[in-house]
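User: Fold this; tokens only.

Assistant: Input:
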Amino acid sequence: MNDQVKQALRRTLVGKVVSDKMDKTVTVLIEHRVKHPLYGKIIMRSKKYHAHNEGNQAKAGDTVEIQEGRPISKTKAWSVTRVVQTAQIV
């Protein structure tokens, strides 16, 4: 397979940066809505991922797109591909 096909097979997720205190790493919160199997109510499920942030371009509060890749460290296997929206400064 060529590089473009391999690139397309990787999962991508969009979430919000909740922590940027580590060097070259951000914590991204991914929220998705699921239907409760018994009661039918729509509920929010969330999960946090550590993502590689080369150049420290993503800051806390930003909405980013992350892409799955090979393991970079014990907890990191995702990388920030782009900043979708920057945080509003109040």
